[in-house]
Amino acid sequence: MPAKCKERERIASSGNPDVPSLPVGAIRGYLCFRCFGPATNILKCGGCKRAYYCSKACQKLDWGLIHKNHCKIFKTINEVEEQQYQSTRTWKEYSEYLLQTVRIIRNAAPRDEALRYTVQAQAYCSSCRRTAVQLTNRNIALKRCPTCRLVFTCSECPSSSTTHPASVCATYKNYGEIENFRTAFFEDTGKASPITCTQFPRNTRKLLSECGNWHDYYVHVSDKPQIKGVIRPDFGGLVEGSTAGEVEGRRMRMFLLCATDNLSMPLTVVSALEDIACDAENINIHLVGATGRELVAMGNFEEILHLIPSVRSLHITAIGPSLMAGSDSPLIPKTSVDCCPACKADGRTRSIAVYKGLYHDYAKIAEFEKPDLVVLFNSGWADGDDSVTDWAPTIEFLIGEDVPALFTTYNRQEAEHEEERMKAFGARFLVGVGENRWRGLMPTPEFIDEEYGVWYNNAFRYVVKGKEG
Ligand SMILES: [Zn+2]
Ligand SMILES: [Zn+2]
Ligand SMILES: [Zn+2]
Ligand SMILES: [Zn+2]
Ligand SMILES: [Zn+2]
């Protein structure tokens, strides 16, 4: 087992973002911090009392690779917890306390997202909101919800069954299964996220607007009719009494559910192309604020060719400050990308270019061509620290160019805030803020904004073009 764990570190340190992150199941004490297999409470790090292991071997390996540095910072956090000890806290008090510790971690290790997440996602009593470490220090036991295994009640508070809603319990349980699937998938394939496209390009166009959900898409537009009557339309589980093999059905549900996380990008684009009635044969798309995530999903963008038979070529430019630059310029020029044999035989082409920098700067270079669609996936442009300095000039440029621009966000609140800011810029909305039918189905628990909050990739969307009036 430890050999595979080392492999994960090697892939991560090469800059590939497609490695599974530390599972919430590990942070909350039932999976091993190193191999992500079942952990034991006995093999807990004695220093910080926050890292759990399945074996001495995993503990030793983790110490050398990561935990030695993390342990020190965790101990500092534990001291802060003791200084701020209260016998009971409201959710608001607890979330303010978390924000404060996040600031401490940002100062100590600015780039270490994993470390920050480990503290944000820490186990606590859902009733008095004392943390696992605070309770351990007082020899008070923490009881785990037996169903989702991610929510706790301490032995001094009333029983766990009433503390979190059944819907939260079900979402967390589903999330736990996804984490296990991802770990197994990575060990089998070396990739964290399953990528799947419709295998053969469609001969006729079928509009996504005629599909109600992902299940419809897989059955009627893509090539997975076999899931009908096996996987429930909401992907929440298998159809009861289905004749398909239980193990195969479960595996297929997990694979297709996790695949939506990346497929969400091309499908959200195709859906926006339908909305703006784009019938171009040569499509030019700018992915603005792109990160490694978009590049990992790039293989999936062939789906645009496979769903729209009239498209002959697809050119995508990824633009963002965290991307790779060319050898002597911020631009890695247009390079062709392999298509599937059927597309190739038909003479269809795909290409990609990458620009390291901000969009309004990219727009000044000679290679800039006005795109058919600009796409900003979960950019959070209105809320980040860089909202005024970096994003405002980009948004102003976009509106001035009068190009259609598709935006997505993780939640409604963020989308509505962007809408308000967009209106202040005078933007004209082609599609107002609404739920995205092609959001990823993989939940990501969120631990600061809202108790039991969950995010989905590209959950909300809107499309703007030019100025109002
Ligand atoms: Zn282990
Ligand atoms: Zn430790
Ligand atoms: Zn309690
Ligand atoms: Zn539960
Ligand atoms: Zn193809």
TrEMBL record:
Cited Pfam families: MSS51_C, zf-MYND
Coiled-coil residues: none
Stated name of the protein: MYND-type domain-containing protein
GO molecular function: zinc ion binding
Record keyword Zinc-finger present: yes
Domain MYND-type: 32-71
SUPFAM superfamilies: HIT/MYND zinc finger-like
UniProt source species: Massarina eburnea CBS 473.64
Signal peptide annotation: none
